[in-house]
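Lab meeting prep.
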Amino acid sequence: RTFNLSFRYANNAIKTSKYNIFTFLPLNLFEQFKRLANAYFLFLLILELIPQISSLSWITTGFALIVVLSITGVKDAIDDINRHKCDRQVNNRKVDVLMDGQLKNEKWMNVQVGDIVKLGNNEFVTVTSERNSPLNLVYVDTAELDGETNLKVKQALTVTGELGDNIEALAAFNGEVRCEPPNNRLDKFKGTLTVNGERYALDNDKVLLRGCTLRNTEWCFGLVIFGGPDSKLIQNSGKSMFKRTSIDHLTNILVLCIFGFLASMCSILTIGNAIWERNEGSVFTMFLPREPGIDAPLASFLIFWSYVIVLNALIPSSLYVSVEFIRLGNSFFIDWDRKMYYPKNDTPAQARTTTLNEELGQIKYIFSDKTGTLTQNIMTFNKCSINGKAYGDLYDFSGQRRTERVDFSWNNLADPKYNFHDHSLVEMVRSGNPETQEFFRLLSLCHTVMPEEKKEGELSYQAQSPDEGALVTAARNFGFVFRSRTPETITVVEMGRQVIYELLAILDFNNMRKRMSVIVRSPEGKLTLYCKGADTVIFERLHPSCNKLMEVTTDHLNVSDGLRTLVLAYKDLNENYMIDWKQRHHEASVAMEGREEKLDELYEEIEKDMMLLGATAVEDKLQDGVPQTIEQLAKADIKIWVLTGDKQETAENIGYSCNMLREEMKDVFNQMMIVFCQSEAVTAYEFFPHPQGARPPLWEPLHYGVLTDDLTPIPSSLHHQAFALEKNLRLELLRTACMCQTVICCRVTPLQKAQVVQLVKKYKQAVTLAIGDGANDVSMIKAAHIGVGISGQEGMQAVLSSDYSFAQFRYLQRLLLVHGRWSYIRMCKFLGYFFYKNFTFTLVQFWYAFFCGFSAQTVYDEWFITFYNMVYTALPVLGMCLFDQDVNDRWSLQHPELYAPGQKNQYFNKKAFVSYLIHGCYCSLIIFFIPWASMNDAVRNDGKDIVSHPSFAFLLQTCLLAVVHTQLCVDTYYWTAVNHFFVLLSTIGYFAISVTMYSNGMFYVFTSSFPLIGAARNTLNQPIVWLTIFLTFLLCILPVVAIRFIFIQLRPTINDKVRYKMRTEELPGPAPRHLLRRRSTRSGYAFSHSQGYGDLVTSRKFLMKRSTKRAPLFTQTDSSIFQNQPQHYRTIAEEAEESQSHKL
């Protein structure tokens, strides 16, 4: 340990907190003042402290700034306190460390690189370490690292495994580890262990990463390689990319425009001050002399900054705080929505971010994975082709099954849940047909499934993909039961007879091979290679004698009804050849450089001239409500692109199942072609119907996507998408794809999914959403503006990387058409109303400047300026923007076309901003000049003047609040008790605070702070004041109501039409379902985008799955929540057509 300490490796203590008790205040304030808005108000506060400039007390800006900084500071402090607690909890965990020949219990923070630690069952892995354990096997749960709930198996080196748990041998162990520097690659590790002059390779399968948890393992000793901040868990805990909405970007631009507008107004008033000083100011110098050293030019310069202070409310500090409150509230509404709760898995919807809610109402493109997102990712073996004969489901002309379910009672080890309906296949197996038995023998041997048998005969399989589990289960029911395995053997019960095969090699699946093989030796000594894979890959590796059988099998694949297909083949091997190949395979598997390339060459060599057995067809059913959801989203003018790793035929059939492709979309495939040179793509041609029928020469087809605007389908296999995404073709690809209604990309890798998303983001300038359920969707989810994760069968990695998550694809329509649209409308209303009320407030000051000699005197009371945004108008606008609905959720779903205005930014844009400015300017003119005119020569009943600056200021303040509160009431569509309470509370609170501040008691106690004694009481006693308030209110509100009425009558929007229908009609029930028969075209099969487990199987690495069950949140199964079904609605246009047809 002393030797290792000399290298100054990182210790094992972690620190995720940002502050301590001494650094919190300076660091937090520094971070907050890095924000432009806070820095701006700090600058204003400094100006207000300069007596020569400020006509306002510092409290007007200081109070608002202190409130904003305090709220943010408290939030940051709570977050950091929680981080401190987590750090202490982790650093103070105990672990046994081998020191001085004995195990000592130490805290995690005291563990050093080079220590040997002992871990027990269910204990967290302290550090990144290399280890030994019983049988050299360790089972770990990696949920904290990658979200996967399946147990992973790790195996130690033999040289360290021989040490066992002998403390003396471990203490005397002497070796040297050389490895790569710390990095964040969870799936890669390169290193060597040198012991007694021998070097042993270390890879990712021989290390335990910090964050894992030991399961089903009694003990494990590990050598610490990386500690604390160097561990891969901490290396991966960097900040995620911060996403901002388009409204955020627009708001920032508008704030800069407001800065310019503010500077322009201050410049105008400064020029006015200079002119007034020259023409009129000399008259006042006798009793208001200038301060020494300040001449007219300098006075004008100071006036500019004085008006910057007076007019600063154009950019209120409470804007950003209010935005965060609204977003947080709308996020809670998503979390609390019971109609997006999935009771089967006890999974509610979750808003994992609070900054993107309004972006959900502006989605133009959706990029979706297929398997597990549109489908259930629960596979069932339905059909197969064996030696040229097809077996599977049998239907009559009415679509009903002809036969009953097959009885597997003759097989004691059969899975009772498995359904099959073709009795002839069982008869062939039981009659001893050699081809049929070889077919199921291959399925029982060629896989990486791990069996678990807790009781005799109760088998459960742990598979890396649902496809493999379905195929092995099918073989089990037909009499070929995969029972157990060791690194060297596979035990299968064949028709009741136990057979043990010697496992010589697993040629594992990877993304390029698209197949896997096993080489086994039977008890009779026969060597056989069994292979399964995609049809295009297997067919080109078959023996020429299989050509006729291949044609028949291909015909069977062409009518597989969109099922996921797999082709099976085998090859008998020679003993001498196998010995030589095995030796070369061993040399390649231990090579430190070029290992993968050498193994691929050997695999290609042996996997040729195979004999075809047949093909399997596995069904992956659609999730409930997928077709209806896609139809609803399409009516909302949302473009849906499906990006899948499956073949063209499979994705095409799913397209028909999902209503993305329809039978009326006829004719011509192969309409879009691309020309390739030998090295790269040169140019692209698009073939739509041509008048002369002439077509450019074709070399190689690019099938991308879809439906054109004239409803002409184009195949969706992206054969050379890597070429299509290169610089010289991607714009042509995007242009052509965007002409289509539906785009389906096939055989795409995870990286290509992200590239397609980025292509649309960059060039279409549209808001994108990506949705997926697996690790291969993470890059796509992170690339889109909004990422949605589905918690399905492929772990939690997609959910952990997403912004929103739920359990079923059908909830997407509610997320977008209801919550997204509401959030967008609420945020637009908030920003528009906020700018309007502050323009009105500030421009009143601007008009007053022309009547006060441009002296920067304020027309309002200082306390009113302080409380205007933070107290008097804060709650009503929050109430409107948290609860407002133009139409309720059912009408939102019935009329998806309501979603279109958000896509076009109709509710808040630069044009709308200018209209708010004009509206605020008009209201400010009315609010200032009507009271000014009415009070100019008015007298009280006793003949004294009513008007004074305090009374005039109070009248303006009252008129202003009456107008802005009424405007808010006019803008509110949906009233709740909270809205009523907030408006009444703000109005009554204003009068209560005003009367209190202008009272005798406040004057006697705080004479300098509240000098306007009796202003409220004396002003409100006069009837002309109430008449002035009423007249001002009418002149401000009536034009708004009149203009809206005229527009609704002459140019009603879709919202106006639906709101009118909602008031006058009952919501119709769900539309009847129309079942459409779709054609059957060729299907294909795609492996998952992850490396297989073949190398784990041969190295004693077993897969086990932890079963975790949670109590359901809702136990009532007859409720509408439990029976949540997608709703079918008709658009306005459809209803109009129906009513017209009835009249005819």
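Slide two material, second protein:
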Amino acid sequence: MAGNDWINSYLEAILDVGPGLDDVKSSLLLRERGHFSPTRYFVEEVITGFDETDLHRSWVKASATRSPQERNTRLENMCWRIWNLARQKKQLEGEEAQRMAKRRLERERGRREATADMSEDLSEGEKGDTVSDISAHGESNRGRLPRINSVDAMETWANQQKGKKLYIVLISLHGLIRGENMELGRDSDTGGQVKYVVELARALGTMPGVYRVDLLTRQVSSPEVDWSYGEPTEMLTPRNTESFKDEMGESSGSYIIRIPFGPKDKYVAKELLWPYIPEFVDGALNHIIQMSKVLGEQIGGGKPVWPVAIHGHYADAGDSAALLSGALNVPMLFTGHSLGRDKLEQLLKQGRLSRDEINTTYKIMRRIEAEELSLDASEIIITSTRQEIEEQWRLYDGFDPILERKIRARIRRNVSCYGRFMPRMAIIPPGMEFHHIVPQDGDMDGETETNEDHQASPDPPIWSEIMRFFTNPRKPMILALARPDPKKNITTLVKAFGECRPLRELANLTLIMGNRDGIDEMSSTNSSVLLSVIKLIDKYDLYGQVAYPKHHKQSDVPDIYRLAAKTKGVFINPAFIEPFGLTLIEAAAHGLPIVATKNGGPVDIHRVLDNGLLIDPHDEKSIADALLKLVADKQLWARCRQNGLKNIHLFSWPEHCKTYLSRIATCKPRHPQWQRNDDEAENSETDSRGDSLRDIQDISLNLRFSLDGEKSGTSGNDSSELEGNASDRRSKIENAVLAWSKGISKETRKSGNPEKSDQNSSAKFPVLRRRKHLIVIAVDFDTTTGLLETIRKVFEAAGKGRTEGSVGFILSTSLTISEIRSFVVSGGLSLNDFDAFICNSGSDLYYSSLNSEGGPFVVDFYYHSHIEYRWGGEGLRKTLVRWAASVTDKKAENGEQIVVPAEQLSTDYCYAFKVQKPGMVPPVKELRKLLRIQALRCHVIYCQNGARLNVIPVLASRSQALRYLNVRWGVEISKMVVIVGECGDTDYEGLLGGVHRSVILKGICSSAMNQLHANRTYPLSDVLPSDNPNILQTAEDCSSEDIQVCLDKLGLLEN
């Protein structure tokens, strides 16, 4: 280690006061245990970049106390290991820089291709459009919202909402959520997000036009947490009794609904919740369906009242909201709170963990994929600041600010976007309760107005705790409230204060840096910041001018703000970057002018409040000058205080909810489509014959009946048959719709013959609704031979239940309906052995026909209207064809094609491609990424061990089709048993989670694990529940008896 004597000596010096470093790596991973280790701190600081002048100064001090000859082998070895870690960090940084460069190139290429498709030029006005939706508070000082009376504006808006009765669903899964006495800070999962979602639900429930708000979360019945978290329902009482809500109902208001999922008696960290998300979705879906019926009886005239929006908070809830949005066909909103890609970037820059180690610890890739899916599915992404959009969301494949601007411009011009979609970004800062805050008037000399009846209350205890630090406590107080984290930049603030003599003479500095018992018990990073502050106080001799109390309660914070305002002080947030800056709003509400960083959310807050100054957090002089200007200029101080108090209502909860509901109102209403049509048909008993035929033609657009089950125009072989005799087609449509979809013809209803009515009623619903249990065969084979063999085994295993009709069967596959008909008939089976067919990987749904004259299948076209959200259509197809050609150009030898379009296998909602050489095609994650970069939203699935590629709507899948059956026909998911192989198509993971039961046929389709799932974004083990009692495995090469044993254990067979 020649040439590094200075660092060796420094290492040796800190070894005298810290424990030995037996395992550098493990100590880094365990750095949050709360015990301060100078050694560990030094290692981290060297790796992240330490100021060499400080190191050299420490070396000089250490060299004076110990001879170089006394160094031992352990010290030399540790030094080498530290620098080895530093080299690894540099290597990781280099790799990350290459990845970022590759990402930029991919995005530019995708943008060019998307723009080439959308070839019309933008006008000059459109080129200047903003990247995202203008903030609720305007985009510049000149465009700031007018300062109007808050109460008058709210009353005007409230009058406009009368008559609306909205049902809103919020989702926040992790942490401990309850309405009162929230345990904020109990762990990393129970923080600011918990408080925000509870207060949002509470505030929305009091808004005019909102009838009910449900906040869905996890039910935790564990001895390690309070019993209240196990209560299924909790009503949120309004904070402000003078709310605008003037109409209450039996089920109105805001509620916390706790859905049981995951381990029943265990509190689970958010990183470990992923395998249980489908279970939550099924439970939440059941609750929403039941609540919609209840609300329908109360306020909907008997028709279900579906949610106007489902709002997911954080990645896990975003993933859940996307699945629920697809199952119910209602709009989705999403708030990230903190984003996975941003966290990944920060962790990689630190260099302490490799990408694989980060994913193992935080399940970060699963989180990122959930956030990408949220971008695919959301109508609106709600953010707190513009910085979140421009610096965090733009890291994602599914959001490009430049492409978003082009798409927005084309939408305004009513010009086609060729299947491209981008969610709208809405900046809505979090709300606050201000009605209980009384800004402090008077000063420290007792100028507060009092009278004989109301004597001045005694000073809060926290005031004396702070003022005991000061020689002159009546000087204006500069207040900083932040935890001792390097990112909060407190040391720079202390340096700025210490360097500016005029500022020291005019003001005191108060640092509220969390709570502590002893420095040694703090985490290494926090203790290092606190020690640096203490050293700076000593360096600049700031004793009597700086307060840093050890303890304060959350309830003391308003009193701290009041004390600062009483001294005519200033609040400062000097963080290097501040995502939002809630403390700035709190300070303004108490009448404090602000000084804040110019990086991040404070810019938006200052734009609205205009109550202070922005500073460069790296510039000590900028900080000192801004503080001195506000403290010294009393007129400026008073003007800033007045502006803050005047505009603070724009950050209130009512204002937040008003903007929030206005955004929801811009979403195109979506809900299950069959509800309106069915009800209209049921109620129109006096229509004429001609009207009846017109109704049938309208219905036939959504529910068409054909001889072979294929859609019109899906293949060349079927078009000639469908273009046959027009009267024949009309007759078949009429009979099919009347017999199957409605069951009872209008003539029968008019005649009032109950006997005929009973005879036809059995045809009103598909037969699967009458089954006690449903077996879903979803085994993914390369060939139909293996699938036929498995079907026979399952039929035999079902035994008596099949013959008696208590057990029904659904075939769920990547095959088309024509392929299914061909192999079922050729295999000696009957199509009527199945109640339903989920085809084309979940993009088509057919039922066995109850009318033998018309044909074997009925296609559910309501299902198509249910899944068509953001379907790219022809624009998507052209992009896929280009992609297939590019794969052939790059990897083919001798002109041999690798991926070719399969027109005969494609349908309106499934574009199929044959893969000639599965080993040469990019993994599914690469194709998904390419399409997202071009703003094309879809679900990409490799099927049949990689021999076929199906591209279907983004919220369609085989598992989602089962949820559709629950919503459409009331078929309980818990009564389903899904039969799968040991692996399968790339949508395999969706078939195993949820409240349904599963049987895994060991040894079947196991080759797909290496072929299709080897190069996944995240490992299957991250999302498959390992301890689920509803999942059973058979032995290798199972027989029908083995399957029967599993079905019996799952309670499917009575005998």
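Talking points for slide two:
The first helix runs from residue 5 to 15.
The first strand starts at residue 166 and ends at 171.
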